[in-house]
Amino acid sequence: MSQAGQRHVRASSSRTLRISVSDVEPQIPLFDLHLSDADIEAVTATLRSGWLTMGPRIEELEQAFAEHLGVRHVVAVSSGTAALHLAYRAAGVGPGDEVIVPSFTFVATANAAVYCGAEPVFADIVGLEDPSIDPADVERRITPGTRAVVAVHFGGYAAAIDALAELCRARGLILLEDAAHAPSASAGARKLGTIGRAGAYSLFSNKVLSVGEGGLVATDDDDVALRVRRLRSHAMTSTTWDRHRGHADTYDVVEIGFNYRMDEPRAALALARLPRLEQEIARRRELTHRYRDALRELPGIVLPYRDEDVDQSSCYVMPLMLRDPDRRAPVRERLRDNYGIQTSVLYPAIHEFSAYRERYSGITLPRTELAARAELTIPLYPHLTESQQDRVISGLRTALAE
Asked: Would the pTM count as exceeding 0.90?
């Protein structure tokens, strides 16, 4: 037995001797990544090539993902956060502007506005059943200083993108999309991240299309694409790859840019994994439907979104909302200690973080604040087995009944 298991038995010996499932069975992680031999060979071949910075594999990835999305331009960058920053900046967000964002999202959505010298303005979500930014609350927060609205497709499920697009058209605002969770999700016939002026995707370690670190900006706007390409590499007019191939022998710097370049090994890994993306998302959808069927009548929880939404989602995560938020900590503890199940919280409210709390001390977002206390994320990844999933379901039922 592990040391952790021994400690558990000693702690329990004064009551009832109990050996938890986590002591004798493998852990079920929140997310797990399997890389194929082809994935590893693609990276190895890149290392053998001797060209590791932006080069041919970056160009190939950008073209392949643009075709996958049905969009004119994709630009590869170093992270999803870099993608957001450059999407905002290239689309026209600048100092003094206001950018309306949800607070129920990862902090990078708001940080990217601050990087541009803009002010994030937090809007509430629709509710526990739909933790996406509320178009009605967005409209209430528009001022003469508002420049852009950001639709976050939480968990890979579409925000109310049509309503937000119409609102932005009517009010002369820029619509941007944080599609970090949604690399192949849809709203009708359109891929998420391709509807606004620009969309940002993440290739972080636990994302649907993972390479460790990386991001992609998608846009149909030629000027936005050109500016993102420049800004990602110090706004130089030519790249090292250009000069290596003899396409340029010097360069100019046309504005103050950034080092947001993606490297070739990560591009190679993304290219190797991209052909499996739809298959893996299909499996995520199967598992999500199975979770929803099993948990639908479970007292004490709300299942966000609708069954019909699943088949257009990337199903990045499986979120639950506890009707009694005070139960979350003990439920997570029991799932971990008694069943070996890892869980997480997506997300704490941004306006309640230390870095934002004093700056936004007067703001109240009741639905966001409730969701931030109530949300519980349970394991979901393509190779999660039905046996493992049954353990999660059984553990959740028992933990909620205690």
From this structure: yes
Identify whether the C-beta of residue 81 lies closer than 8 Å to the C-beta of residue 292: no
Signed CA dihedral, 229, 174, 210, 371: sign only: positive
Q: Do 79 and 215 contact (CB within 8 A), yes or no? A: yes
Parallel, antiparallel, or unpaired: how do β-strands 130-133 and 73-77 relate?
unpaired
373-384 residue pLDDT tens: 999 999 999 999
Q: What is the DSSP string of 219-239?
A: ES-HHHHHHHHHHTBTTBSS-
Dist CA 302 CA 236 (whole Å): 50
Contacts of 211 (CB under 8 A, 6+ apart): 203, 266, 267, 269, 270, 273
From the candidates 73, 153, 197, 207, give the one annotated as an active-site residue: 207
- Structure confidence by residue, pLDDT tens digits, 314-326: 999 999 999 999 9
What length is written for the chain?
402
Nearest Cα neighbor of 196 from 144, 145, 153 is: 153
DSSP state of 261: P
Neighbour-count burial for 167-180, b at 16+ CB within 10 Å, e otherwise: bbeeeebbbbbbbb
The average pLDDT across 11-37 equals 62
Do residues 342 and 30 lie in contact, with contact meaning Cβ atoms separated by under 8 Å? yes
Q: Extract the tokens encoding 171.
A: 């009010």
Label the pairing between strands 318-322 and 146-152. unpaired
> Where is 366: in which H helix or E strand?
helix 366-374
> Could you tell me which of 83, 90, 97, 62 has the C-alpha nearest to residue 235?
90
Q: What is the pLDDT of residue 8?
A: 34
Question: What's at 361, amino acid-wise?
Answer: S
Q: Known catalytic residue: 207?
A: yes
- Complete DSSP assignment for 2-18: -HHHHHHHHHHTTT---
For 32-62, write each residue's pLDDT tens digit: 999 999 999 999 999 999 999 999 999 999 9
Q: What angle do CA 85, 213, 178 make, to 5 degrees?
A: 40
Cα of first residue to Cα of last residue in the chain, in angstroms, is 26
How far is it, in rounded angstroms, from Cα 255 to Cα 351?
32
Q: Identify the three-state secondary structure at position 126.
A: strand
Contact indicator for 264, 51 with CB cutoff of 8 Å: yes
